[in-house]
Amino acid sequence: MESISPAAPDAPKDKSGRWDRVLAALARHKSISVGEVARQLGISESTVRRDFAEMERAQLARRTHGGIVAIDVAYSLATTPRDRDETGAARERVAAAGAALVGPRQIVGFNGGRTTTSTARRTVSRTDLDAHDGKPALTVVCAALNIATEAVLRPSVRTVVLGGVAEPYSFELTGPLATATMRDLWLDTMFVGMIGLDIQAGLTCSSDAEASVTRTMIGHSRRVVGLATADKVGVRALAAICPLATLTDLVIAGEVPDSLRAHLQEEQVRLHEV
Questions:
Q1: What is the pLDDT of residues 142-194, one digit of tens each?
Q2: How far are the Cα atoms of 130, 179, 210, 252, 263 from residue 197, in angstroms, in the given order?
Q3: Which residues are paired to 132 by β-bridges?
Q4: Distance between CA atoms of 106 and 4, rounded to whole angstroms?
Q5: CA distance 236 to 59
Q6: Largest Cα–Cα distance of the chain, in whole Å?
Q7: Alpha helices, H only, 109-199
Q8: What is the bridge-based pairing of β-strands 138-142 and 67-69?
Q9: CA distance 40 to 221
Q10: Fewest beta carbons less than 10 Å away: which of 23, 68, 97, 177?
């Protein structure tokens, strides 16, 4: 079997980091063994077995004798990272904090992006949000195909996918059909990822078509949670998503400039530093 990459020296020891590494390896290789994970991550085989058991309960994978296998051919779309960068650990802290904001039976929306995808994965995997009385534990409204594949694998989650044209790199659904569908839906919480976060420009992304759909989702949500890492601060991309004042919450990992902190306080946006 091929190795989990990268190998042991920078391997994560926390559970969320371990899971992300295992899921990425599953997307590439379709099956991995207990022993291989233990060697590559520098942890005990008993820890790996516990992780595998929890992943199976969360319906992320299926255990086999001595290992674990991917459960669906669409799995790779949901779990394969498009790249690997230095902000990965910070991004996962944001995702964990964002997922913790979701309550049972909420209707939750996500636009596309790496941070929102990680947040969606953690949200739908929460075992404390089990379904009861035949009702879904959560309803997830997806503006991106890869997030839909994260959600639809969980029977306790009702998955709603917007129509429209799928963008090839972000997997986001755009166009009049996506916007029209969203106009008939309402959300409790909308998670918003972005390329740039700037006091004057607000939240921005590289596609005006994607920004348009995200704005409609924001306008139909009670709570709007921005998800960012510190490298996004001060960046301006092509298309405006919304002003910072539109947010109810901002979850951010890394150093927050005093000017941004003051602006958020002035606009009564709750700041969650992770």
A1: 999 999 988 988 888 999 999 999 988 789 999 999 999 999 999 999 999 99
A2: 35, 23, 16, 11, 12
A3: 135
A4: 35
A5: 38
A6: 57
A7: 114-124, 145-152, 176-182
A8: unpaired
A9: 43
A10: 177
